[in-house]
Design a protein that fits this description.
By secondary structure, the protein is an alpha/beta fold. It folds into two domains: about 170 residues, no CATH class; about 200 residues, Rossmann fold, CATH 3.40.50.300. It has nine helices and 25 strands. It has a six-stranded parallel β-sheet with strand order 22-21-23-20-24-25, with helices on both faces. It is globular.
Amino acid sequence: MAATPMIRNTPELESERPGKEHTESERGGAARPTSARGHVSGPFWQENRMPVVTVHKIASATCGHIPTHEVEINEGGAVRVGDVIVVKALEEKRVYDQLELVGGRQAHISKDDILVGVLGSRQALRGFVGHCPTSVSTGDTLSVLNLGGVVGIATSGNEDLGGQPLKVKVLGLAVRDGKVINIAENAVPTSKSLKCKTPLIVVSGTCMSAGKTRAVCEIIAQLNQRGFRFGAMKLSGVAAMRDTLNMQDHGAVRTLSFLDAGYPSTAGFDDLAPMAIGLLNHMSRESDAGKSPLDAIVVEMGDGILGGYGVGSFFRNEQIRGAIAVHVMCAGDLVGAWGAKQLAESLGRKIDVMSGPATDNEVGEKFIEKELSLPAANARTAGRQLADIVAMRAFGRESKR
């Protein structure tokens, strides 16, 4: 069992008082009166004292905004997506019990652990579902919605992941110089005009866990060995470093994700394009400033082209469609592969090659090649073939060497 949190500069933090539990029908309630965002009236502020909590684990979703384990907090108030929050674990689970830390390592969450996470939403078909509250107070109950430390109001569980997500008690919002810390501070800005001239290799899928990251990493690894240089991005989904770290491990020289734009997830996005364009422009400028420019940027679109993370809006943008050199689709099964082809065409960017579990053996491969008139290449068993197809379509050659 973890030690009791050390809280300084206040004789009585209200984290131990009975608090309300946020439910699906209660979306946060009215905000407390504030003179400025993050400055909440109450005993701490009347005495001009800011409580400091010693935390045990800092989630990767905080994006380096919490440099030490000594964190100043307030007692809550109105919030927005991306606010950094300090919470106490109310239970210990044996399934989906890990928190990804700032360095990418995963650690078990023990009961009474003091965690630093980020307020946000999740809409995972095969995971937990929840949303960001409109306000929080010390003592409220929220949930850890994902591995990366996104915290919110849980509205739907998943039996494969142990039922409901791990519950936590709010201790307060993390503050610096009297202001609530938000991961959007100093983030890459959005843009409406695509300046990036680097070709895009986009890997999308019919759903989560359809083999997208495996395909991205195989493409990067195979073609990196042939002399091509890649940047890589994850532009939709929910916060976690493991996918971009995996891309780096396979040879990507630069990586970015929606986290770098200040978003803990893209859940509920009506239009992903401005955020995506901002990140593409940013990576392109870094590439142009360097001595070794990128040959392409490999983009993973987390979740499915249908779903709650705004992937369809990415393909609806004409500028982005014009920059896509190759579109790889990862399908979970043949029905998904058939539907993906129809949907991709309706979005204005056809599929160039099919991968994923639908191509695990010759049954799927033959169907895709004959009935859908698309090449099929499995990232796990035919990585070289997948890389060949991608290279020829993107660069007109299989190797730079």
